[in-house]
Amino acid sequence: MSSNWPIVTVDDIKADEKGSIAIGPFGSRMKSDCYVDKGIPVIRGTNITGGPTFKGDFVYITKEKADSLGSSNVYKNDLVFPHRGSIGEVGIILEDKRYVLSSSLMKLTCDMNKVNPVFLYYFFKSRIGRHELLKNASQVGTPGIGQPLTSLKGIEFRLPPLDKQNEIGDILSSLDKKIQSNTQTNQTLEQIAQAIFKSWFVDFDPVKAKIEALAAGGSADDAELAAMGVISAKTLDELHGLKASNSEAFNKLAQTAALFPAAMQDSELGEIPEGWSYCTFGDISACFDSKRVPLSKRKREEKQPGTIPYYGATSVMDYVNEWIFDDTYLLLGEDGSVVKDDGTPFVQYIWGKSWVNNHAHVLQGNNGVSTEHLMVFIKGTNIASYVTGAVQLKLNQKNMNSIPFLKASTEINLVFQGVLNGLYDAYKNNIESSQSLSSLRDSLLPRLLSGEMELKDKE
Question: What is the pTM of this model?
Answer without folding.
Answer: 0.87
